[in-house]
Amino acid sequence: MFKLEGKRALVCGGTSGIGKATVEIFRKSGATVVSLARTASGENTINCDIEDLDKLTALVNKEIDDNGNFEILINNSGGPPSGPLIDAKPNDFNKAFRRHVLASQTLVQILLPGMIACSYGRIINIISTSVKEPIPGLGVSNTIRGAMASWSKTLSKELPPQITINNVLPGFTNTERLTELKKTLSEQKGISQEKVEENWLSSVPEGRLAEPSELAKVIAFLSSPSASFVRGTSIPVDGGRTGSI
After folding, report:
1. Contact 28, 219 (CB under 8 A)
2. Which residues, at least 6 apart from 39, have a Cβ–Cβ distance to it below 8 Å?
3. CA-CA distance, 41 to 44, in Å (whole number)?
4. pLDDT at 81
5. What is the predicted pLDDT for the residue at 189?
6. What domains sit in the chain, N to C, each tagged with a CATH number?
7. What share of residues in the chain are helix, strand, coil (percent, to 5)?
8. pLDDT tens digits, residue range 17-30?
């Protein structure tokens, strides 16, 4: 496992998929983890829709006041609905921008003073391979993910030493989000869900879907002291699907 003893991590979307797998590996690696999600409940959780920036700010500040600073932030949220870009309405963009860019910006501004005080900070954004190659049928998502990547790269030049920011770009990963997308594409294209997955995997040299735990291991590495000189990068974890270098 990775050495995260004594670190506190805030994991957005920590109750399912890649976020849940990240929470599990962080805990195994010695970190104290707080999950933030709409469906979060119980100990070490914050129940909040991250589109509600005022509530998000209040709850995260309270957590810090009560239990101390965070050294690790995982920005992770479900992507916008699928569909052609030409059909997207202004509110589709507004909602997605608020959920991804504005929520992430808000969290960084809240957590950064504590990271500076600890002389350690890791900010990891779970985005998409679409920042390198736009994915057909995901018009709003492609747009917002690209904005997240540019936001992250800009911050990488502004954050002080010892506080890094990087992006993980999942490929086709075995999550609820992918299952929903598979169903939607099946209905839109009039083909079986099995055929949708077959088409996806035809472009993946590894020939299979990723498991969330495989993404979580990369996230844990980037969150650890071992990744101290990795900064401002976007790392695909996609089984070799992305064609760009």
Report:
1. no
2. 15, 16, 47
3. 8
4. 85
5. 86
6. 8-172+211-237 (3.40.50.720)
7. 50, 15, 35
8. 999 999 999 999 99
